[in-house]
Write a sequence for this structure.
């Protein structure tokens, strides 16, 4: 069925997408999330289409009626309408061409309805564009706000640990090395050290994210701009910057931006690093809360959820365990992103969809788990002074001080 026939068959509760989306739906029968379940990506592609339409109108490449209808349809999608029309899995072959065409077809069909004219997905909605410059641009637009959310939440975890250090400024507990008794450490130093471990991870994520503001829109298929009107790249970027409110710039090398997934993978790696840092903190809290009678039992975590189906009164450290599992997912996304980046060939990296999914899910989970970790675990944790005092009996402080004055041999424990 050609596009005109498709439009002729539209009515009331119709399917807006067309033949290319339908073919992709048959070709990619995956169980993973659909585009409709990742609306930030769909809305980002729609934003690119709106900017492109406005640029093409200004350059005389698109008539006012069709251009205005494309803009109106794109705004509907950005407002959350028509999400059910975006039926494809996020992970797909073709480097995102099917995602681009799914949006093109939906906007073209809806613009045709609004204008009463034939609006074509390729000739009009995709005019002056290629999947190869649309998708990297849209991915950046979708990912940057998620990075910002994650950064705010990570700062929240660090702040909650700093506050916990202030709360227990006068308490000293037994430090451990290699899970063996060592020497005392102030609880304030313990928590401040945890907070300090988060700061470099925040900086790394911020730095990685800064590279995404340079986008290749207007580079079309291989970075040369072939098929776009003179001035399109500048005009479209200006419109997109105004539309999104992001400080976007033209990629210094469009061919590099089209050919490499390295900037996206760098963000994935930075998110994974942040996840590892959180997991390390979560493991320490989980270990210090172990028991409480038969373990270390120095920390009491908030009892947010009953933890056993058979043992009444048992409460598991579910929030630290959630943090740890999110770190595993982030590590997996990083492994997939590295593999996808390594196999890019020549003028394009066709494996962007799997990197995109890892970023959308990973950054969202990093943000949410950071919020939960701070609010439902760290803020309410309590140090048990009785257990802390009892365990200090294992301190090697005296032995260390004796060794410093009388020599190591004289300070060795008789029972060691």
């Amino acid at each position: 069925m050609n596009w005109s026939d498709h439009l002729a068959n539209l009515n009331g509760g119709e399917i807006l997408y067309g033949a290319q989306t339908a073919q992709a739906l048959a070709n990619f029968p995956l169980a993973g999330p659909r585009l409709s379940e990742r609306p930030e990506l769909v809305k980002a592609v729609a934003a690119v289409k709106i900017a492109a339409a406005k640029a093409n109108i200004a350059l005389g490449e698109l008539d006012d009626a069709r251009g205005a209808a494309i803009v109106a349809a794109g705004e509907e999608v950005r407002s959350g309408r028509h999400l059910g029309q975006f039926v494809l899995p996020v992970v797909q072959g073709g480097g995102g061409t099917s995602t681009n065409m799914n949006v093109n077809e939906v906007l073209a069909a809806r613009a045709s309805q609004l204008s009463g004219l034939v609006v074509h997905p390729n000739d009009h909605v995709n005019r002056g564009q290629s999947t190869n410059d649309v998708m990297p641009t849209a991915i950046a637009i979708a990912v940057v706000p998620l990075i910002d959310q994650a950064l705010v939440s990570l700062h929240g975890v660090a702040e909650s640990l700093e506050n916990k250090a202030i709360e227990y400024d006068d308490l000293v507990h037994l430090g451990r090395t290699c899970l063996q008794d060592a020497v005392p450490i102030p609880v304030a130093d313990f928590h401040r050290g945890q907070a300090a471990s988060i700061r470099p991870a925040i900086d790394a994520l911020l730095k990685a994210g800064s590279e995404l503001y340079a986008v290749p829109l207007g580079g079309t298929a291989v970075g040369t701009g072939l098929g776009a009107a003179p001035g399109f790249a500048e005009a479209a970027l200006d419109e997109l910057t105004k539309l999104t409110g992001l400080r976007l710039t033209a990629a210094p090398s469009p061919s590099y931006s089209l050919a490499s997934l390295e900037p996206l993978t760098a963000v994935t790696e930075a998110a994974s690093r942040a996840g590892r840092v959180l997991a390390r903190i979560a493991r320490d809290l989980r270990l210090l809360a172990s028991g409480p009678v038969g373990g270390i039992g120095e920390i009491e975590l908030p009892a947010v959820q009953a933890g056993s189906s058979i043992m009444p009164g048992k409460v598991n450290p579910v929030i630290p365990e959630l943090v740890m599992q999110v770190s595993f997912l982030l590590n997996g996304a990083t492994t997939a992103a590295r593999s996808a980046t390594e196999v890019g060939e020549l003028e394009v990296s066709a494996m962007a969809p799997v990197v995109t999914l890892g970023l959308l899910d990973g950054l969202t989970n990093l943000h949410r788990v950071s919020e939960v970790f701070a609010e439902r675990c760290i803020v309410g944790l309590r140090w048990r002074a009785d257990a802390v005092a009892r365990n200090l009996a294992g301190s090697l402080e005296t032995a260390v001080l004796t060794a410093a004055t009388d020599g190591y041999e004289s300070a060795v424990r008789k029972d060691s």
Q: What stands out?
A: Residues 173 and 389 are 7 Å apart (CA to CA). The longest helix spans residues 131-167.
